[in-house]
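Give me structure tokens for this 654-residue protein.
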Amino acid sequence: MLLFLLFCTLVGALAGPIYWQYAQEQQERLLAQEETSVVATTQMIQKEMYEQLHLLELLKNSPAMVEYLSSGSTSDRARLELLFKNTANTYHRFDQIRLLDNSGHELVRINMPEGEAQAVSTERLQDKSQRYYFSEAQTLAADQVFVSRMDLNVEQGVIEQPHKPMLRFVTPVLDVDGVRAGVLILNFMAQDMLERFRLQMSRRIDQQGMLLDPQGFWLSNHKRSNEWGADLGQPNHNFATLYPDAWPSVAAQDSGLVETAQGLFRFQSIDPFVFSPRQQTDFRLQHGVQLSDTTLANTAWKLVIFLPKEMIQAQSVLYQPLGRAVLALILLSLAVAAWLLAYNKVHKQLRQRYDQTVTAELSDLYEHAPCGYHSLDANGHFIRINQTELEWLGYEQEEVVGQPFVNFLTPDSQLRFAEFFELLKTEQEIDNIVLEMQCKDGSTFYVSTSATSLKDQAGHFAIARTSVFDITDRIQLERKLEQLANIDALTHISNRRHFYERGELEFKRAVRYQHALAILMFDIDYFKRVNDTYGHDGGDVVLKQLAKTVDDSLRDLDVFARFGGEEFIALLPELSAEQATLVAERLRQEIADMPVVMPSGETMNITVSIGFAMLTAQDKQLDAFIKKADLALYQAKEQGRNRVIEYQGTVTTE
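Here you go.
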């Protein structure tokens, strides 16, 4: 009773300070989690800039460049064009690659229309002597590089649609005698880099990550409508307008933390050309590349991570439902703990003396083994886990022990683990089960697990002891090879072979467990007319856009593939006939409403005919099931096309 009263007194006296400290720790924990995003994003952008400087230097010093600048011959010009085209096609990062002479006139230019590099003929080359980047190039020394500010690409005085964020890398080039003979310009398309930035930010708690230019305009924002205020004539779409209390600190300092009434702002200067020591080499030191002062001013970007006040408060226990009730339960727990503490004190001391002797000998071997070890109870909860596996996951011991193992697996692996764990209750040992584990920072890795079951005195399953080996590199290689074999080269969806692999599994599962399964087959109406009118390039555009539209509309669990030519097929698990009809009608309408822009610039629309069938008790083979949908598709075309027909067992071709 005295111990209980002491606990109650301490809780009452310390409740206020403890909660304040708790709130501060919650805030610090959130900020600590954000550091991973800050470091990863900075390194990603620096790596991207590093690679562009590297490519610029390779092109500048290539034999093809030097020989053409020295000779000016047609054959050397063709070699240089081929080098530019190969570079553009290989990296798919450059909208244009240009070589200007000392007067600003284009000598060679490569464009990337429709994602394929094309050399511009000599009669279409232009005079760029009045452009700002040529003027800037005139001030550069031979080993200097100028990088423009990131802006939206403008064609003929109008911002190009869809938007193309662009950086221009500019450097002088020399002939074989070391005499300045022109200017090399790479138009770097920054869209992929910004998309990777947004992906990195989407893994955060609140997903509010921003990238600012030196004037405080958003290059990337979680609200896309706020981006590119300077280029789009929206001067109020900037950080200073939306967050006036935070902007002075963000603008004046390289990094830091600002707390306002709106929330917390963690900001960091990116410095994209100040490369991390963890890079293999520092490019500028290795090759002597010097960046102009204008470049450093143009690329003084800031990463800002925003934690809204509401989100911070939501992490506090007092802002959770029944929070105060939990505090009352804590007091009750203190009373129980006081009694248990007194009762178990002597027993615990005796047990600890014995445990310490054994643990001291085994702890180091267990904790720091080159593979992971953990033990699970009969319910699949962690009893113990070694330090190696904790470091892989990014968690502390107390965050894992007592938690279900499935909480640290991806959804697909959760199902596989459930089957494996159920089997382990009857088997003594199971080896080499591949699972995908989920880290604290959101990343995943693959492991091969082997487990041994231990039983209690009554012979019931009690504990699973498991070893874990990281096989991520092997899985990634296997998947890359599998993707090359399974993906249709034109549409980038599953091919016919891959459909049969996945479809056979879905078909057998549906038959075995008597689950609903629908199959859709559809092809493009009058597709031959498209090829006859627009050529095979136009037909390819139609196939690719149809595949993307359908793939975006279907669920992840659906199996969608190009079956051959203009014919596509899809398996829809767990859908009734009514639901499958709605899906088929929706796809038919979406395709009919889909504008297709041909290579010529013309816009056209297409329609599809769709036949579908539902799995019945009589269906035993996947090919026969496909045939039913094919018969329904044939009838849809016979009845006038641009319609959905369900196989009823009486489909005819009359």
